[in-house]
Amino acid sequence: MKKRIAVTALMAALIVVGGGFLWARAVFTGDAVRSALAAQLAKAIGQPVTIGEISASAFPRVEIRLGDVAIGSPVRVRLADLRVGTDVRALLSRRIEHGSVRLNGARIELPLPPINMPERPNEPSGAAAARPSPVQIVSIDEIVLRDVEIVSGGRTLRGDVELEPRDREILLRRASLAADGTRMTATGRILDLSGPSGEIAVKASALNVDQLARFASAFSGGAASERAAPSSRRRTGSAMLNLAVSLDADRATFRGLVLDKFSGRARISAQAVALDPIRFSVFGGRYDGSATFAPASDALAFRARATVADVDVAAATRFAGNPDTISGRLSGRLDCSGRASDAADIASTIRGTARVDIVDGVVKNLGLLRTIVVATSMRPGAGGGLTGWSKDEKFSRLGATLRIANGDLTSDDIRFESENLMLDAQGAVQTMASTVNLKGKVQLSDALSQQGGSDLLRYTQESGRVTLPATVAGPIAAPHVAIDTADLTKRAIRNAAADEVEKRLTNDSVKKGLLGLLRR
Asked: What H or E segment, with its residue span, contains residue 209?
């Protein structure tokens, strides 16, 4: 008896499932349903939609399967396998309500065509309700995309995306994407698909700032030209791209420059990627400020305002194309802009101002102290005894306020301080030509001023120290230091005359004092 009941129940279940499948196939397949779905989708998003094939299943949930779906003209979205599921209660009314969309395999080419977001997505319009339709899409609660390719700016992202449509926005529950060995995850919300516009939080192993700017530009580039007579309410495509993105990456790159521990908040539009604030490590130091990047033909325009701290100067000059010239740790502030296609392009186009202070470094092949010793010895061949001296000049501090333009760094307040001397100068460093041209004065330390002898100190002193006019010119890698002997001679004559006047005044005072005593 029990066996007969079980067999009967199994047969009933098979009949129900089989009947449900046949009914679902009858209701949700066929050319009429395929055409109706394509028309409804086209009306909903405002773009042409074609559906190559359609089928249905009833277990474990009623699903309509759409194959070879194309969206746009020209086609920018291709969907290989799209499954739309619905509840049984909705099935009885030929409606897709509280449905789910699952996509396996898709290719999306940016820029996207203009896509409508109905103001009342869960309610059919009066005209649509009046027309009979084999099936009606009422609401979708979940969209899951698997193995999706997003192509933009010559770069292809692949991955999975989970979305949840809401009343007037789409919740990005999770996106997991990869490109060129870089993996990133994202969450957030999309307020308007046409732009798109919204707020997204991105975490990545690495970011390429150049490609990010071009990728963002391609989101809506050209969309405005395809939009026919937009209404006053609707903005053009390029203006609609408006994403607020929080970024957190282990590493980012910009024209070959590696930025570690990259974080910030970006405003992405079709015109630019504006990061404010932005923080990262570069050349062993820290950058804290803002930056804007905008595609410009085959280059990338940029603007940066920031403070920097503890930057490895040797690494920075090596990147700029002048290795083994100077070392130390740099701190300061900058405000500059330019265009970049490579490291050399950055150096030649950058313009702006900066204040820099470098501590505990070495200027290679400067030979400043060596030159002073030779110049003040007043003996031919005096340099022969200095063969063991290094021409590398150590310093405790090197600071300047810089004007940056055309690859030149110019300053009126360069100060070089070391244990033995101090140099105050003005002039320029030509980074493109790798040359330097400075003019100023060198003061020896108190100790060296005393060691130079009383005559040298008497004839060259300024503020109690040996002070010499000097020029630094020539290749950055091996500059030539010279003492301006003509100026030195003038100072010696001036100081000697001052000493003579002082002596005479002193003698006159002594004589007057003696005469006064004798007259008493």
From this structure: helix 209-220
Q: Say if residues 104 and 69 touch (Cβ distance below 8 Å).
A: no
> How confident is the model at residue 518, as a pLDDT?
41
Distance from C-alpha of 295 to C-alpha of 311, rounded to nearest angstrom: 28
**What's the number of CA atoms in the CB half-sphere (13 Å) around residue 91?**
22
Q: Under DSSP, is residue 243 helix (H, G, I), strand (E, B) or coil?
A: strand
Check whether 379 has a pLDDT greater than 90.
no
Give the span between the Cα atoms of 436 and 476, in whole angstroms. Answer: 6
Assess whether pLDDT exceeds 70 at residue 415. yes
How far apart, in whole angstroms, are the C-alpha atoms of residue 109 and residue 76?
5
Residue type, 321: G
The number of residues in the chain equals 520
Cα–Cα distance between 497 and 502 in angstroms, integer? Answer: 9
Average pLDDT, the chain: 77
Say which DSSP state 418 is in: -
Any idea what DSSP says for residue 235?
Answer: P
Tokens of 433: 């030509």
**Averaged pLDDT for residues 167-181:** 85
DSSP codes, 160-205: EEEEEE-SSSEEEEEEEEEETTEEEEEEEEEEETTTTEEEEEEEES
Other Cβ atoms less than 10 A from the Cβ of 499: the count is: 12
Torsion of CA 262, 265, 268, 273, to 10 degrees: -50
Of 344, 332, 244, 319, nearest to 287 (Cα)?
332
- So what's the pLDDT on residue 89? 60
pLDDT at 305 over 90: yes
Query: Distance (Å, rounded) from C-alpha 342 to C-alpha 298?
Result: 11
List, for residues 50-70, the tens digit of each pLDDT value.
998 888 776 666 777 888 999
Q: How far is CA 39 from CA 24, 51, 290, 295, in A?
A: 20, 10, 47, 38
179 within 8 A of 214, measured Cβ to Cβ: no
